[in-house]
Amino acid sequence: MSAHTHEVKHEAHGSLKSYIVGFILSIILTVIPYFLVVNHVLTGNSLIFTIMGIGVLQLLIQVIFFLHLSLAPESRSTTLSFIFTVVIVLILVVGSLWIMWNLNYNMMEHS
């Protein structure tokens, strides 16, 4: 195995520093919603939307720091595969919710 091949492999997996930064950010983004719920800082819809926003942010942090998805030319195929997977999951979830709402509406008695 040449030294160049070893370097490319090492860069693709990230460094210890990036793993630690990702881990610390993930812990912080886990503790914040816990703190908001336990201390009743927010209630109702504002709490739900805040937790959902932090969840999406944590997903992005984990995708970047642990799955190493980026817009770099070397990882473009992996990133496109991930985006395709997200689109398919969104189509399934939104489509299922739409069907359930439509069935609920059509099964209700209208007066």
Q: How does this structure look, described?
A:
The structure is a single chain. By secondary structure, the chain is mostly helical. 79% of the residues lie in helices and 0% in strands. It is built from 4 helices and no strands. It has helices spanning 3-13, 16-38, 44-65, 76-107.
- The proportion of strand residues reads under 5%
Helix content: over 70%
- Rg on CA atoms, Å: 21 Å
Largest sheet: none
Element order: H for helix, E for strand: HHHH
- Shape, principal axes of CA atoms: flat
What distance separates the N and C termini? Answer: 76 Å
In total, how many beta strands? 0
Entry keywords:
111 residues, mainly alpha
Summarize this entry quickly:
The protein has 111 residues and is mainly alpha-helical. It has helices spanning 3-13, 16-38, 44-65, 76-107.
How does the SSE layout of this entry go?
Elements: H1 3-13, H2 16-38, H3 44-65, H4 76-107
